[in-house]
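> Could you send the Acyl-coenzyme A dehydrogenase prediction when you get a chance?

Sure thing. Input:
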Amino acid sequence: MSFRRDYLSKPIFSWARGVLPTMSDTEREALEAGDVWWDADLFTGNPDWSKLLAFAPARLTDEESAFLHGPVDELCAMLDEWKINWEWRDLPPEVWAFIKAKKFFGMIIPKEFCGLGFSPYAHSEVVRKISSRSLTAAVTVMVPNSLGPGELLMRFGTKEQQDKWLPRLAAGQDIPCFGLTSPEAGSDAASMIDTGIICKGNFEGREVLGLKLNWHKRYITLGPVATLLGLAFKAYDPDHLVGSEDELGITVALIPTHLPGVSIGQRHLPAMQVFQNGPNWGRDVFIPLDYIIGGQERLGQGWKMLMTALAAGRGISLPSLSAAGAAYAARTTGAYARIREQFGISISKFEGIEEPLARIAGTAYLLDAARRLTCAALNEGHHPAVISGIMKLHATERMRIAIDDAMDIHGGKAVIDGPQNYLGGLYRSVPVGITVEGANILTRNLIVFGQGAIRAHPYLLQEMNALSETDRDKGLTAFDTAFWNHVGHSFATMFRAWGRSWTFGLFAPAPDAGDATEFYRQLSRYSSAFALCADMALLTLGGALKRKEMLSARFGDILSELYLLSAALKRWQDEGRQKEDLPALQWCMASGFKTIENRFAEILGNLPNRPVAWMLKFLIQPFGARVTGPSDSVVHLCAQLVLSPSAARDRLTPDLAFVEDDGGIARLEKAFRLVTESEDAAKQLRAARLHDWKEAVGKGVITEADGEKLAAAHEAVAKVIEVDDFAPEALSPIYKKTADVHQFFQELGEQRAAS
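Output:
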C-alpha cells in the first residue's frame, strides 16, 4: 500500500494539487449545503431499484388531511382571482385575516411554538391546491413557509429568538419576508454590497454592541406588508470589536420594519401579478448583535445558513405550484378540447390537438410524480440540494411548456381576459417562477451537474477534500484510497456501460415491475453511460469543465431526466400499476429517453478531447441517438386520459380547487359532464343526419330525455365558449373625459355650420 501511495499516487497527488481550481468560501458553502439521496445512486451508474421502490411514499396525517379539506377549501371558496388581480390589486382584508387566523403562515413551525407542525408533503399539498385557485394567495402562503425568517429561526435561531419570534410568526402577528436580492446582486447574491458595520449604539434606551446597517433590496415577496424582515448583508468589524478580522462575511439578521431608517411599502408589479412584492431600503439602521439569527456566533455564516435552507425549500414551493399548473392545464384543456367543435367535430379528434394534449397530460403525470418523491425524501429528513435544484428548474420549465400548449389549444378563449378566462393569469405568472429562487439559466448551466458531480459522485468530493488538506501527508493517504477506488469504479462503469449499451439494456438490472420492467433496464443502461461520460469529462477537462457551461448543462439534463423518470416509475408502482395510466408513463419514458440520447450525442459531438469522445461513442452510442420520442399510438392514448371522465383522469388531476360557482371553471366542468353524458344521443343525431333535437325526438331517433340533455349540453358549451367584453368606460378612466371633449368639439362644429 505504501509503495502505491509513494510511487504511484504521490506524483498524481502533486499534479492534481497544482491544477485544482481555487474555490471561494461561498462556492464551498453552496456545495456543502444539504445532502445527497437518490441522485447519488444515479451517479454510481448502477442504481439499486429495490431501494427506491421500498422507500415509503409521502402520506398525509389525519390532521393534515382535515386541514386540506377544511380551512384550505374554505380559503379557496373565498378567492376570486379576477377581482384580486384587476379590481382589488391585493387579497381582500377578510382573506388576510383568515390566512392568519388559520395559521397558514405557520405550517412548518413546530407545535411547541404554536405552529401547525406540518410535514413538507402537507406544505406541498396546501400550496398545490391553493395554486389551482389563486396564484396570488398561493404565493402569499408559500413564502413564509419557504426560505425566510421562520425556517432560518427553526434551524439556526437561539432558544430566546425561537421563543420570541416563532409564535408571533405562526399566529400571523408578524408577517415575514426575506431580503436577499439587490440591484447589484441577483443570481450572484454573494456579490451584494449591503453592509453591516459592528459598532456601539443606542437601542431601546441602552448602549449595546450591534450593527449599523445600510441596504437596498428588491423583488422581495411580502416585503411591502412585512413587519419582520430577514436581511442578508456583509458584516464588517473595522474597529475589531468582536475579533481580529475586518471582513466577517455574509450574515443574516432579523429587522423589525418599524425601526428608524427602514423604508418599506413600495410595490413591484411582477408580470401583472399582484402578490405583495417590492423593494426596501435601510439607512443607518441599528440593531443589537443578538438580532443576528443564531446570535453573535453566527456572524459570517449567513451564506451557509441560506444555502442549507434553500436546499430543501426549492424542492417544495415552486414545484408544488408548477405541478398544480400542469394538472390544471391538463384538466381544463382536456375538457375544452372535448366540448369545442370545429368543422363539425370535436377538436380533440384532430391529431394536431392530440400531440400537445398528450404533452400536457404526460407533463402533469411526471411533475406530480417528482413532487411526491421529493416530498417523501424531505419527510424522511433528507435535504437533497441537487434534487431540489432539479425540481425547481424542471418543474417551472415544464409548466411553461404545458401552459403554452394549453393556450394554443384554447386559442382566443384563453387570450381574451375577463372573469371567464381561467388560463390568462397562470400564463402571465410563468416567467415569475422561471426567474425566482435562482434563475433557471444559471441552475441548468452551472448548478445541477456542477454541484451534482461533486456531491453525488462516489469519490470526487473525497478526492477534492484530500487535495485541499493542509496536512500534506494526511491528504496524500486519503487521496491514495479515494483515487484508486475511483479508478476501480471507473473501469467497472466502463465495462458495465459498454455491455448495456451494445445490448440495448437487454441484461441491465431491473425489478419485476410488469409493463414497466423494460423502462428500468433502460434507465440502468443510461445511468451507467452517464457515470462513464461524467468521469471522462472530469478526467479530461478537470476544473475547465466549470467553464464549459453548455457541456455542463447537457450533463445536468441527463441527470435530471434520470431522476424525473425514476419518480414516474415510483409513482406508477405506488399507485398499484394502474393499467389505464400506462400511456402517461409510456409518454414520459419515451420523451425522457429521447432527451437523454440527444444529450449524449451532443456531449460526444462537443467534448474537446476528440479521441476520448470517439472512444465513448464506440462504447455507449455506436449507432447514434435512436429514440425518437413517443409513438403516435402512445400520443393518442395519452391524450385520451383527459378527454373523458374516468378514474385515470382523476388520478392525473387530483384534488384541484374547483369551486362550485358560475365562474369559468365551473362552467367548463358542467359542460364537459353534459357533453360526455349526451354523447350517444349526439351520435344518433349525426347518424340520422339531423341537427334539431326536437325533430329527432319527433321522428323517434332519440328520447325526449336525451333531447333535453343535448339542449342542456349545447347551452352549457355556448356559455364556456363565450369570452368577456367590457364597456369602454369600464376599462379606461380617461374614456369619459375623451368622450366629453369629443362631444364638445362636435357640438361646436355644428354651431359654426349653422351660423
